[in-house]
Design brief:
about 280 residues, alpha/beta, eight-stranded mixed beta sheet, four-stranded antiparallel beta sheet, 12 strands, about 40% helix
């Protein structure tokens, strides 16, 4: 078993110390894609790292809660993660669509409000927008129910397609009361007021967590990092973990601890569980 790594910042070391001192009041927050699941060209083929669920099952009973916070629909994240019906994951919650949907392991059900009508309207216009932007070939539209995403990773020039689409998709989103959230070769159109920081902050308050660890890999996770910084200023210690990626240097620069992708996240979860034995 690898030893528990030492955060490179003092706030991170304080956050880890608080986590270890009282794990029963600690929250573990985790992104899904790129953090628990390796990034793949086709988002429908994404699956959790094979050792992620065993690592979570070892750690979850020792903490207040584990929350997977994702832009995916909650039910999709549960299926792709293999989280349902696993002994030890009774403290797991999946906050899908940035917190608009919630799945609890105890009940096995998803609760959610009605979807924003602008998402369906924007989806209907997407093929024409992509065609006019000259970026249709190789792009991939992902249906997400409460959001819709355009992936450029499979385009001939992924970065050029990404840049060509930012303006047109922002205009489309604005017309329908939505916002655009950029990520790793993906642009997501979704309702405002939904982000990982809002979801994380609300969940911390809901369960009364006294410390928080959050791990992510993408630009959308910066909002969760902001939420942890706000919690720290309010006296709730926190540890920020970057699931390492050369594509998102901004997150690595903000993190207290950088690990080597989903495999590194799994190692961290295992080390935490072993430390609490």
């Amino acid at each position: 078993m690898d030893p528990l790594p030492t955060p490179q910042t003092q706030p991170g070391r304080d956050g880890l110390a608080a986590f270890l001192a009282k794990p029963s009041a600690a929250l573990v927050g985790l992104d899904f894609d790129g953090t628990l699941a390796p990034i793949v060209a086709d988002p429908e083929q994404a699956r959790a790292h094979p050792e992620a669920v065993p690592a979570l099952a070892a750690l979850a009973p020792k903490v207040a809660s584990v929350a997977v916070i994702t832009g995916r629909p909650a039910g999709v994240a549960v299926r792709y993660g293999g989280f349902a019906g696993v002994a030890g994951l009774e403290h797991l919650t999946v906050l899908g669509h940035y917190g608009a949907e919630r799945w609890d392991a105890v009940t096995g059900t998803v609760t959610a409000p009605a979807p924003h009508p602008g998402v369906a309207a924007a989806r209907a216009e997407l093929p024409g927008v992509l065609d006019r932007a000259g970026a249709w070939h190789g792009t991939w539209i992902e249906e997400k129910g409460r959001a819709v995403a355009v992936h450029t990773r499979r385009a001939d020039d992924p970065q050029a397609a990404f840049e060509a689409l930012r303006g047109p998709l922002t205009d489309l989103a604005t017309r329908h009361g939505l916002i655009v959230e950029p990520g790793r070769m993906v642009l997501e159109l979704r309702p405002p007021g939904m982000d990982k920081g809002v979801a994380l902050g609300a969940y911390v308050r809901k369960i009364g967590a006294e410390s928080v660890l959050y791990a992510g890999d993408d630009l959308g996770d910066l909002r969760a990092f902001d939420a942890v910084d706000e919690l720290r200023s309010d006296g709730v210690p926190g540890l920020l973990v970057c699931s390492g990626s050369a594509e998102v240097a901004e997150l690595a620069e903000r993190a207290d601890l950088v690990v080597d992708g989903p495999a590194g996240v799994v190692d961290l979860l295992r080390a935490l569980a072993a430390q609490l034995d």
